[in-house]
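Q: Protein A?
A:
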Amino acid sequence: SRLKKQSRLIQSKMDFLNFSWIDYTLFVLMFCLSLAVGMYYGCCSQQQNTTEEYLLGGKKMKIFPVAMSLVASTLSGLSLLSLPAEIYLHGTLYMLIAFSPILMAFSVNYIYLPVFWKLQVTTIFEYLEIRFDRSLRTIASSLFTLTNLIYLPVVIYAPSLAFNQVTGFNLHVIAVVMSLICIFYTTIGGLKAVVWTDALQLSVTLCTLGCVLIMGTISVGGLGFIWEKAEISDRIEFFNFNPDPTIRNTFWTVLIGTTFMWISFVGTNPATAQRFLAVSSLRDARKVLVIFVVLTVITKLICCFSGLIIYARYYDCDPLSIGQVEKVDQILPYYVLDVATKVPGLSGLFVAGLFSTALSTLSTYLNSLSGIVYNDFIKSFLPSKIAEDKASTFMKIITAVIGLMSVGMIFVVEKLGTLIELIGTLTGATVGPILGAFTMGMLFPFANTKGTLTGVLSSLSFMTIVVVKYQINVWNGSIKYPSKPLHTYGCNETLFNENQTISSVGGNTSDEVFLLFRISVHYYILVGVILSLIIGLSVSWFTKSKETSLVDPDTLNPLVHRFLSESNLRTRSKLLQKELQIHRISDINKNNKEEMNSLKTDNDKLLDK
């Protein structure tokens, strides 16, 4: 009878929080606009037949929409759901993620962006082939493709979880429907459709977040009340300088770890670097970076502060402890519906914005993956004329196939751990080694193919073992992270007044787990980069020769040019000239051969006649 009573109480509360017809109308309207944008660029706008037009928008994209598209892909449903939940459970230390993009901007602006812009590559993995050889490009492309086949279902799952919370709709059904909408406009519209839908969706999301933030602050009694409740529960914590790498959140783990996460995401990620190459000049690309950093800092702070507002509202009656939400990642949509009931349509816009940011991430990566799969795995097997004339057709097919595969993977994602830790375990094993390879190539002229390949593979193997062991220990309960206290003494229902104790989610990590497998997930990318650099540079140093020491200056960062010898530059210049002559002769021979075949065919027709 107690369980039945609890079920009735929870169900009545959820009925109170459900969508109205206005919410549904605005939700549907938002996605109809996204479809309209995709159809316009796919059917009514200028045709996108070439790789450059489909992937880079003809390199004529506007600065502000591109910057907004970048922000939308970072402000995914994962951020909107997991950041408030993180602050709600573990306090404000993770709020430092809002400031690490500033450190990232200096690295990207001075190290990676000038090189990519100089080479004018279609996908940034082409750099690895130019600097080293084809094998490294293939490895990087394979890792990126494999990682995102796992990551994209997480992106879809997060907002579907929220929609399930507020409407009761089947999680899997809504995930499939929304994904198909995204796949459609991404497939037919290319980068132009992706950028403009992202800009539209982000505008709505930011406006809705701002309204919810203001309403939430007023509803709980103002900023002073929010800060007071957070301090009482020991949630205000910024300067925990404990150097222990196994602690989940400290000043060092969050600031350093997330800085390397941002560098890998913005500097050496094909999906984001593609945006910087879609504008008309390096100066415009740098403006995109500045706008991106400013908007990202603002949006991350809003998301994090929302966690404190939510705690101030439920400090004495935690919805997670009493079963009104099944997972902590559902706490934000639950809160939004709770405070926004007096404003018709606000809940619908919020959930639409939540889905929109998730779909912007999905569309970004689908567009990028189509280019990588086509250029790195398919194009070389096609005749040159067909490869260029039919490029957009092939990439549209690839986009649709990868999108459908991601939809199928949703059923696996929900069986794994919390969203932030899941993202860390997915990206930590692969992103770090690849970031190390780019860094070696741009900053160390003596780095060669053998050394870089050894470094990447060694780092990848090591980090895969660490990630797998970590996830196993999470599954069996050996690794647990205690949360800040959660209370239920203020719940109004008679049932919950029986239990007025303070609850705490999780426990302590067992000391029996080996130190290496207890390291904070925030450090995974950093460790992968360090291992890749140490091993790669060591092997390169002991295997260097005169040939491997000749490096194309365009593949090095401009700051490194001063350290190159003049003989190196002259010799490399001569080699490049000879290679160019060889390619020209090869093209001439190829054209001559085609002309000879054409003449022979005409001659045969004349003889037959």
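Q: Protein B?
A:
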Amino acid sequence: GPDKLPSCGVSNRPSTMSNSTPAADYENDKKKFKADRSPCSPSRVLHIRQIPTDATEAEVISLGSPFGKVTNFLRLKQKYQAFLEMDSEEAAAALVNYCSHYTPYLRSQRVYIQYSEHKELKFESSPYQARAKAALQAVNATQPGSHVFPSAYAVEGGHQPHRSSVLLITVENLHYSVTIEVLYQIFSKFGSVLRIIIFTRNSQFKALLEYADPVSAYYAKMNLDGHSIYGMCCTLRIGFSKLASLEVKYNSDRSRDFTRLDLPFGDGQQPLEVPMAPAYGTQSFITSPYAGVPGFAPAVAFTPVAMNLPDVTSVPANAVLLVSNLNPEAITPHGLFILFGVYGDVHRVKIMFKKKSNALVQMADSTQAQIAMSHLNGHKLYGRVLHATLSKYQIIQLPPEGQKDNGLTKDYSNSPLHRFKKPGSKNFQHIFPPSATLHLSNIPPSVTVEDMKNLFANTGSTVKAFKFIQKDCRMALIQLGSVEEALHALIALHNRYLGEEHYLRVSFSKCKI
């Protein structure tokens, strides 16, 4: 029967099925997740577990809709499970990649998503199938062309984002203080929060919050809109902003750029102490979409005295990334140094001796590690989908002197190619996700358009467009056939000597030609 459909786990997700209640299984699932599991081959069919009984079919289907069209659906309601069939394997892979970093929720309850062993869903005609088909049609009809497939998790051939990664947040019934720290605490559960600006308009508290990718904004809106932060007050009303990004000039209690810790502080100090009055009686707790999950500690407890909020502006202290599913025939430490160096200063790289499809990349600090991970994870490199996660190691150890490692470990701590070694460098303002359009600089005046086109064509790239963007021809944009081609070209040509003491500088561009 359909309730016996097996699945296999990825990204440390459990693969066992249970027909007990989701709440009772939560702690057991956490224990089962501790053991690493070998990922199975990607499939268009995804297995979803711990679905709340009151969740609708449309809500379950909406878990997959940001990444592509859901073509088939099967729900096992008594087992709190479901199967989604996506329109492509790439769309399914992007969703699994996303869930390896950010936890999906339905009706305030955590759910688990993993690949199924089945390559497609097939079952005979039934009244249930008719209902499932109607639910699919309803979701697809209400979201035509609205896939927000994030570049950080997409693979070649995926959909391009159509929604904004900036949310406009209105807080109604404001009885208690809502700070940047509180908003970060709540919204960072759904993705990497880059910037927050809070302001007042028409006597209403409002905030603009920018995620690293549109899909995080989509899930945050889907799960948080209409929920209250504190008890029955401070209700969130969330919509998509028309802004493409936010610009923060000062880190203060009204604005914060979590990617630019070097920005000067504005008026006042960073607000780590917030005096708050008791909510109901002597004590009350934040009730967020996570408060109903067993084992989830309330973010802030209200007491009659002022209390210190946790320093949620900091990111995990680990600056070492585990990069897996690499092509061992093509990847080198230098290639990883150049690629990850777009998003931070790479200090060391180590390709595993026994498993050369895995590597460790040590960034200058944990913030740069988070930025690199959020931008590069899920992209296709040399024919494989790159996976980037935080490593359990805090530092990459160099091999003892005299010990051979076949050049698999490299130290780049003093490399002159670091893009961010100068405090306040303008390069911090030009960090963009991988794209098919590259920004080129430091081009000598004697180099022509044909010279540059031939240079990139020799790397195997398809040059679709090229133009100089300065009169002296020192800078240019080049559009290649795909994002993967742009990744390969950047690795091959960044710092390439072009003559006349000029070394080519290559980075990703947000512009198109």
